[in-house]
Amino acid sequence: MEFKHDVLIVGAGLAGLRAAVEVAGVADVALISKVFSTRSHSGAAQGGIAGALGNEEPDSWEWHMYDTVKGGDFLTDQDAAEVLTQDALRAIYELEHMGVPFNRTPAGTIAQRAFGGHTRDFGKAPVKRACHAADRTGRVIMDTLYFESLRKGIKVYEEFYLLDLIMQEDTVAGLVAYDLATGAVHVFHSRVVVLATGGFGKVYKTTSNCFANTGDGVYLAYRAGVPLEDMEFVQFHPTGIYGMGVLISEAARGEGGMLRNGKGYRFMERYAPGLKDLAPRDVISRAIYDEIREGRGIDGRDYVHLDLTHLGKERLAAKLSDISSFVRIYLGIDLVRDLIPVQPTCHYMMGGIPTNLDGQVLDENQQVIQGLYAAGECACVSVHGANRLGCNSLLDLVVFGRRAGKKILQALDGLAWVSLPDQPERDTLAKIDRLKRRQDGEKAGVLRNEMQEAMMAYCSVFRNKKDLNKALATIRSLMERYEGVAIDNRGLGFNTDLTEALELESLLNLSYIILVSALAREESRGAHFREDYPERDDQNWLKHTLIRKTMDGYRLFYKPVTITRFEPKPRVY
């Protein structure tokens, strides 16, 4: 079946919803979501949304911009950081007026708390900048925007899985999607496609990401000839529940939580004497692994403790109720008296599809690809550089999702309908048919587990040439074996056996791209830490990595970082 809409937005998280709400009522817009809309991963965000409102103590957007640039280890494009931080106040008040129930101060203003890497006076001391709704901020913002989309009558194709982009002469013409409920493959014809498909943390064994985060949009853009940017920069959040990866929000440390090693010592005083437990995530993740390597894990094991016991029952219930529930359900412990076992967990991808400040996707020559947009974690406007600060992700989604929507409205009249090629779904149908017909072969789950193990072992918080090459050899082997993957379920409705096999193609290729990019960058910067090149090298590596698919494999090339206000300097906390 063929569907037709002016604007197709793939992904119903905050970036996709915010873009859709902006366009609705002016153009025919539809959302395509791999999951039921309110199950999108944006709802898992706990801690808050950053903005220099100054409700709790003096603050300014310039300080916020500085923290964003410094937190990104000066790989952040500073024009993007300025847009983000200047627009933060408007974005937060807009959400408040839509109905987001933020916590309040006694004076009735939006409450704010401290968060990692956010400071006053250009790094002098922590500042309370995170606006929050207890520890379920992403959930309430997404629900609010979802209700706004219902109010505006936006069409949503729920549980439709993106399988191909349709491009005609470097212009987008639509997409191909698979209806999970019926097994039918549909063609969507449009003038604009917005990719808001989120991250791809399922590349790793231990991750805070949901099972749907397999990088479909990012890989399909790459397969269509779009270069990908800064893919080596993968953020590991320091406090995932040990052995599970389920996130314990930075809000826990923002409220006063402390990390302790096996000797009970608050070790972040050694690694970041200024910000301590509120240092950026890359700094704390490396500190945890250093403690473990030096034998100071809990009982000599590979985790440390997060201590919230001193916060008290009332504060935990008011500010960290979801976290209290998580650990009670998953670990059977009570935060009032028990310490939480934590270790770093793959959390966020700084790299992705390169865009300008209005969400328009850029080709290898930095020219706009007509009709193709990206926003959110799958995009790389490079507002996060080499390491994202906590609470800047929700802000990124609503600021750049809105900007993409506004640019679409400006550009739509100048975009003609591009004719679809003959049978654009042909290749997708053939791929599904091959998987269903193959009688013997390895299972996708086996290959996926081997991939995740290799990426976790050789390309996580610490990296080196030897380990990266080991991982590359493993991924190349898995890519060859993938050609013989077989499935058992040949049914139509909700065939997870089939979808997992299809997702694995994205995951394997994105793993390969991460490894190639990481091996090439011979320095340490932000979340990319090379043990064999432990220093940041601005002379040779103050530049963005770009990788593009070619007939012969891939091509790596680079572009400069945009520097406007803050010259790179040593990153001390």
Automatic annotation (TrEMBL):
Membrane topology: Peripheral membrane protein
Endpoints of the signal sequence: none
Reaction catalysed by this enzyme: a quinone + succinate = fumarate + a quinol
Keyword Metal-binding among record annotations: no
EC numbers, comma separated: 1.3.5.1
Pfam families, sorted: FAD_binding_2 (PF00890), Succ_DH_flav_C (PF02910)
Main location group: membrane
Cofactors that this protein relies on: FAD
Gene3D superfamilies on file: FAD/NAD(P)-binding domain, Fumarate reductase/succinate dehydrogenase flavoprotein-like, C-terminal domain, succinate dehydrogenase protein domain, Succinate dehydrogenase/fumarate reductase flavoprotein, catalytic domain
Plastid among keywords: no
Pathway membership: Carbohydrate metabolism; tricarboxylic acid cycle; fumarate from succinate (bacterial route): step 1/1
Cellular compartment(s): Cell inner membrane
All copies of domain FAD-dependent oxidoreductase 2 FAD-binding, residue ranges: 6-394
Residues covered by the Fumarate reductase/succinate dehydrogenase flavoprotein-like C-terminal domain: 448-573
UniProt keyword list: Electron transport, FAD, Flavoprotein, Membrane, Oxidoreductase, Transport, Tricarboxylic acid cycle
Family in the record: Belongs to the FAD-dependent oxidoreductase 2 family. FRD/SDH subfamily.
Name assigned to this protein: Succinate dehydrogenase flavoprotein subunit
Lineage of producing organism: Bacteria, Pseudomonadati, Planctomycetota, Candidatus Brocadiia, Candidatus Brocadiales
